[in-house]
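Q: Please design a sequence for this.
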């Protein structure tokens, strides 16, 4: 019985997250976007190198996360507004099921580039996380990256309400693409 209580305690404490913990899991402002190579939902490969040469927003997202789903409209609007001006928006879905991701995107009538990260978001962006109860990347989170591949701003999902969060992403994009 004590072991069951201890496991429950560890699980519940793992769900508690502070902004400081969430910030530790993401690359620092001024650092390079971490290397990754993933398959997009259409089957094509995309990597961090594909983003070089254009300002980008990388959204770390999951179809099973309510906050991530709530951010879809803002992500799609950002893509529609800035794609013609050179911004690349890429959603990295921390999901193993492409059909589940497609279903969420279709139900929201959202068309944005999505790569399937299949549970590797923490491996890519929080490699120092060694134990299952350690907190990894808070979803959704956004990395605003300049054309050189340098992280210019991090907007963390737990940081604020969805409208304010997308407002901060938009503000950062407007600074890169006047």
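A: Design:
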């Amino acid at each position: 019985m004590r072991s069951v209580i201890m496991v429950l305690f560890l699980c519940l404490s793992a769900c508690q997250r502070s902004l400081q913990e969430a910030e530790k899991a993401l690359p620092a402002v001024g650092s390079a976007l971490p290397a990754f190579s993933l398959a997009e939902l259409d089957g094509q490969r995309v990597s961090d190198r594909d983003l070089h040469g254009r300002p980008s927003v990388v959204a770390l997202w999951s179809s099973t996360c309510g906050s991530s789903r709530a951010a879809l409209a803002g992500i799609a609007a950002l893509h529609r507004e800035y794609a013609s001006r050179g911004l690349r928006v890429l959603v990295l879905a921390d999901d193993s099921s492409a059909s589940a991701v497609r279903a969420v995107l279709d139900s929201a009538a959202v068309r944005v580039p999505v790569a399937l990260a299949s549970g590797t978001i923490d491996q890519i962006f929080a490699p120092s996380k060694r134990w299952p109860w350690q907190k990894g990347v808070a979803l959704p989170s956004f990395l605003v990256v300049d054309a050189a591949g340098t992280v210019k701003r991090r907007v963390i999902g737990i940081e604020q309400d969805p409208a304010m969060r997308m407002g901060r992403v938009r503000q950062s994009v407007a600074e890169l693409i006047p």
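Q: Thanks. Anything notable?
A: The first helix runs from residue 2 to 15. Confidence is low (pLDDT under 50) at residues 4-17.
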